From TrEMBL:
Composition-biased stretches (Low complexity): 242-254
Ranges where the record places region Disordered: 228-254
UniProt protein name: Putative c1a receptor
Segments forming domain G-protein coupled receptors family 2 profile: 1-211
GO terms under cellular component: plasma membrane
Record carries keyword Ligase: no
Membrane topology of this protein: Multi-pass membrane protein
Native source organism of the sequence: Amblyomma aureolatum
Lineage: Eukaryota, Metazoa, Ecdysozoa, Arthropoda, Chelicerata
Keyword field: Membrane, Receptor, Transmembrane, Transmembrane helix
Transmembrane regions listed in the UniProt entry: 77-96, 116-139, 159-178, 190-210
Cellular location(s): Membrane
GO biological process, one term: cell surface receptor signaling pathway
Amino acid sequence: MMCGVMYIIDHSIFTLDDVKPTKYTKNLTHSNTWWCKLLSVLNRYFMVSQYTWMLCEGCYLHRLVALAFSKQMNLKFCYVFGWGLPAVLVTIYSSLRATQSDDRCWRNIVVYDYTFTGPILACLAVNIFFMIHVIYILVTKLRQRNVNDTENFRKILRAVVILIPVFGVHFVLTTFVSPSSCSAYHKKLYAEWGIVGLQGFFVSLIFCYLNSEIQSLLKRSYNRYKNDRSLSRRHRPSVPQTTTTTTTTHTTPM
């Protein structure tokens, strides 16, 4: 989510300014101020953390399927790896940019980008291995059952469609594809931004909101909320109604 928010902030400020600079902005990229560098650093931090957390999710799911009876995964390690490793990588990148290539708000591509793009590719490679191994286990278990090939194929295809956004394998399409023309490059950027922005939505939709247990819990919570409101309305003290009577006196003239 934070990665998508940073993408929106970054491109709404810098991309629009690069396309149509005004007399007030004077092209922010060339100004090279401290806050635009900070924005670039935060953008890279949340981008790397997205891949590290996808690796944590892939490792957790792989342990559930491949090592079902093993000890439960330590979540403290996930916190340290998911948030700590991106901080270390971005700190190294920032120190190199500040001393060696301090220009253009750190938005241009330089050789120091490999300090975080290299680990990103490593996370994707490990997740691809996890996904292939999980699919292999599912195929092996399905073959052991007395199910026809068509139903097996449907279940395997459904598993692949579900696992691709969890393991982040779809990012390989935008990572390794290098378009030759300018229009193709812009299409690649649009596809990459759409994938980054909708990653969390699809994962939460598949594993949370489409889960029958989660749906039953949400319905139970909603019904409890409705019952609490109805009970509070019943026990609410009613305002007593006071009736006022007016007496009219007629005076007879003497």
